């Protein structure tokens, strides 16, 4: 049986990819655990002790993994590249490969291809899995709030989610919607201060889920007229029902007819369809303005006076000027309101386009971080998780700061959605290309000696004496 040797390039590519697989999976697992731990610590008061089943809590956690994965994967790519190439450089394998005629660009090629595959998978994830996960999370959250209105109430903390009210509750109960030690401040009227206290109570929704109802027992109502400080009223009650309007603040029925998807619950194709429809409406409004102005110009030209001026015609001219002024104001109002609608539609379209570009720019960061990570890993000559995580965190903070800043500027119309979402990739990608070229030309090292300058002088002196003693 004849056997043919495997191509040298294939063996090298597999070796490099195997060196990245372990650090990548380890980084994904570690970072997801850290993000998930942060999420649980932040919302544990709203999940535990509210009567929710373990299955519902687990479903909430799983659905939140989608946005965590979107952040973790690009960062894990950078950590894996830094660790893998740092280890290879520390063991002098990079030097051996170069001596064998393997260029830096050849070392970069398989990792860049793997980064492109990861980026393609993340694009699919961002357009299919992530929107659906966000929508299911939104639906589940509203269903839970509808069933358990006490979910957003934290014991001993003022809740201000309901407009015009502040609610403080000393104790909630897991198996019911009963409350204990309620203090309710009604500040809808700036000229009047109203405070309601009750020993016990129960919270529920109205049948149409548009009002939050508080059935209070054994309490007092305190009213103070802020315009007449001397006018104060106190009322003692055995039972009191207080209905608060909560329409539009997520306390809604989660039916398909009343539950629309936002930009975070849509994929790029669906959002592009919405943008096209918004732009069609803009064109129609612009055409309407042009038609109105053309008809008004023709009417003015056709209504120009032709006869001789007389005393009666002077009064007619005065009336005509008044009518013309009223018509001009009417037209100005029509044009202003139409332009305002056009501007609002343009802003909505821009926000959708920001989300469209974000679904592609964040996965593209996988390629950008490969370009940065390969030269940095070779230059650092260390493959430990600490060094890799530190460098990754620094670059990812820089990337995320640029991304968030670009998103804010794009939403305000200062930058285009494309530039706002892709500027971070262009900036860090250009830095990665520059570092790759420099490493390909010569063996550049990152020296960590500058860190010792941050130490106290006596510490630096003692370190110098230890090194000299070791040398003897």
Question: Which helices and strands, and how do they pair?
Answer:
Blueprint: H1 8-47, H2 54-90, H3 93-99, H4 104-147, E1 165-172, E2 178-186, E3 192-205, E4 211-225, E5 232-245, H5 268-302, H6 311-380, H7 385-411, H8 417-441, H9 457-471
Antiparallel strand pairs: 1-2, 2-3, 3-4, 4-5
Task: Explain briefly what this protein structure is.
With 472 residues, the protein is α+β, with helices and mostly antiparallel strands.
Count of discrete domains:
3
Strand content: 5-15%
The secondary-structure class comes to: alpha+beta
Secondary structure: helix percent: 55-70%
Q: Would you list the SSEs in sequence order as H and E?
A: HHHHEEEEEHHHHH
Plain-language structure description:
- With 472 residues, this protein is an alpha+beta fold.
- The protein is 64% helix and 13% strand.
- The protein has nine helices and five strands.
- Helix 7 packs antiparallel against helix 8.
- The longest helix is centred in the last third of the chain and has 70 residues.
């Amino acid at each position: 049986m004849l056997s043919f040797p495997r191509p040298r390039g294939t063996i090298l590519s597999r070796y490099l990819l195997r060196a990245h697989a372990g650090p990548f999976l380890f980084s994904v697992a570690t970072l997801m655990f850290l993000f998930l731990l942060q999420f649980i610590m932040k919302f544990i008061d709203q999940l535990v002790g509210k009567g929710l089943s373990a299955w519902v809590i687990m479903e909430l956690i799983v659905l939140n993994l989608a946005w965590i994965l979107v952040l973790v994967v690009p960062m894990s790519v950078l950590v894996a590249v830094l660790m893998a190439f740092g280890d290879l450089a520390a063991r002098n394998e990079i030097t051996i490969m170069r001596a064998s005629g393997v260029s830096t660009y050849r070392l970069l090629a398989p990792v860049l291809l793997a980064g492109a595959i990861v980026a393609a998978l993340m694009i699919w994830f961002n357009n299919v899995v992530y929107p659906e996960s966000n929508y299911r999370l939104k639906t589940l959250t509203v269903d839970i709030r509808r069933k358990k209105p006490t979910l957003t109430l934290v014991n001993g903390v003022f809740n201000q989610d309901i407009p015009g009210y502040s609610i403080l509750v000393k104790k909630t109960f897991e198996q019911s919607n009963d409350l204990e030690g309620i203090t309710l401040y009604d500040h809808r009227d700036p000229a009047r201060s109203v405070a309601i206290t009750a020993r016990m109570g129960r919270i529920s929704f109205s049948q149409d889920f548009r009002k939050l109802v508080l059935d209070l027992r054994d309490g007092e109502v305190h009213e103070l007229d802020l315009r007449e400080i001397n006018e104060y009223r106190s009322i003692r009650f055995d039972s009191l029902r207080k209905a608060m309007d909560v329409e539009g603040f997520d306390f809604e029925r989660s039916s398909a007819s009343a539950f629309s998807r936002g930009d975070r619950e849509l994929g790029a194709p669906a959002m592009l369809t919405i943008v096209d429809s918004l732009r069609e409406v803009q064109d129609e409004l612009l055409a309407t303005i042009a038609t109105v102005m053309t008809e008004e110009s023709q009417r003015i030209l056709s209504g120009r006076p032709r006869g001789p001026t007389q005393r009666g015609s002077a009064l007619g001219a005065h009336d005509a000027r008044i009518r013309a002024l009223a018509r001009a104001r009417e037209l100005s109002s029509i044009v202003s309101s139409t332009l305002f609608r056009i501007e609002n539609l343009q802003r909505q379209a821009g926000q959708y386009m920001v989300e469209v570009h974000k679904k592609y720019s964040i996965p593209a960061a996988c390629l950008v971080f490969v370009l940065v990570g390969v030269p940095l890993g070779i230059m650092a000559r260390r493959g430990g998780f600490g060094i890799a995580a530190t460098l990754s965190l620094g670059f990812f903070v820089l990337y995320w700061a640029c991304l968030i800043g670009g998103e804010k500027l794009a939403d305000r119309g200062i930058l285009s959605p494309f530039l706002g979402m892709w500027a971070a990739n262009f900036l860090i990608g250009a830095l990665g290309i520059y570092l790759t070229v420099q490493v390909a030309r010569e063996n550049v090292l990152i020296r960590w000696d500058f860190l010792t300058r941050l130490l106290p002088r006596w510490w630096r002196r003692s370190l110098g004496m230890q090194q000299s003693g070791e040398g003897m």
